[in-house]
Amino acid sequence: MVDGSQGGTVPCRSWMVIPARLASTRLPRKLLLRETGKTVLQHTYESASRARKPLGICVAADHEEIAAAVRAFGGQVRMTNPAAATGTDRVAEVARDLVDIDVIVNVQGDEPEVAGAAIDLAVQLLEDNPQAVMSTLATPIRSRERLSDPACVKVVFDQQGRALYFSRSPIPHARDWDDSLLTADPPNFHQHIGLYAYRRDFLLQLAGLPRSSLERVENLEQLRVLAAGYTILVGVVARATIGIDTPEDYRAFVRRQSGC
Asked: Is the pTM of this model over 0.85?
């Protein structure tokens, strides 16, 4: 639980940005897949729009085909540099023009079932803790397979909800394993969920921070923030949304949409 008493709640003007690349490795052109009658990107846009705190939403597109798809369903879109190195860079490019906004929420385009309440929680964390520059989310890990999977990023945080470390390794690492560690309450292990809220001014500085050795080893951008001494708040939600990374992920999403 995050303690909001350190500075009191400070209402923020927030905005959501969905970075969207046309290219994808494991599932080509995944954001434009539309077996459900809507593209993955449209599903994400509509799900994110259920959040109540942000004032608006737009897609940060790297290709005109993405932009055209967004316009087709009536969404807002901004063109960004196709050579942008990361989705964060693409979000920051849009944020430069949002001069009246305090907090920018980065919503991944391949999260068609993202919960509006989760987005609101990420914003609320920054409203309640003015000293923090960034927030993100986590969910309990109850499976040893997930705990051991390097693709499942883990996070540990202190009693005030401030992130201590993110890793692809199991953290904390149990000296003596017992299956009851996975069922403990409060949970011992948490999966990081890749939804971020940034204070706009900090987001514009983030790309200029030097990459830390930890970031290089783990290939986790958020470690750059911790290594530079900044606070990342972690809010806990009951379950993770299911991203679309592989053909199997997409087929499962289509089945859920059809109720099968």
From this structure: yes
